[in-house]
């Protein structure tokens, strides 16, 4: 078992994990990072955080194990047309 730390970045805003989570291996840390980033994507972030989210996972030594990111692009949705994004 190893302790992993999950640091979140949203534009100029960031939050460093000082507690961490004990997990079996890097694969479990990857799954935890994806779940955490998914949860953050639906949360209200600080003003000016921007549309891009990233999570860096560190191990007990401080080494980066992995980094995942999510970028959201705004799309206008047509009132008619089956919810397809509008071109333009």
3D structure, described in words:
This is DUF6894 domain-containing protein. Pfam families: DUF6894 (PF21834). InterPro entries: DUF6894 (IPR054189). The protein starts with a strand and ends in a 17-residue tail after the last strand. β4 and β5 form a beta hairpin. About 9% of the residues have low confidence. Strands 1, 2, 3, 4 and 5 form a five-stranded antiparallel sheet that branches. It contains one helix and five strands. The radius of gyration is 16 Å and the shape is globular. It is of the alpha+beta class and 88 residues long. The protein has one domain.
Number of helices: 1
Total number of strands: 5
Spatial separation of the terminal alpha carbons:
51 Å
Low-confidence stretches: 73-80
Strand content: 25-35%
Outline the biggest β-sheet: 5 strands, antiparallel
Gyration radius, rounded: 16 Å
Overall tally of domains: 1
Fraction of residues in helix? 10-25%
Shape, per Cα inertia axes? globular
Mean pLDDT equals: 78
SSE ordering:
EEEHEE
Q: How does the helix and strand content classify structurally? A: alpha+beta
Quick take:
Helix content is 18%, strand content 34%. With 88 residues, it is of the alpha+beta class.
Give the SSE layout.
Layout: E1 2-10, E2 13-15, E3 21-23, H1 26-41, E4 52-58, E5 64-71
Antiparallel strand pairs: 1-2, 1-3, 1-4, 4-5
List keywords for this structure.
single chain, 88 residues, alpha+beta, 5-stranded antiparallel sheet, 34% strand, globular
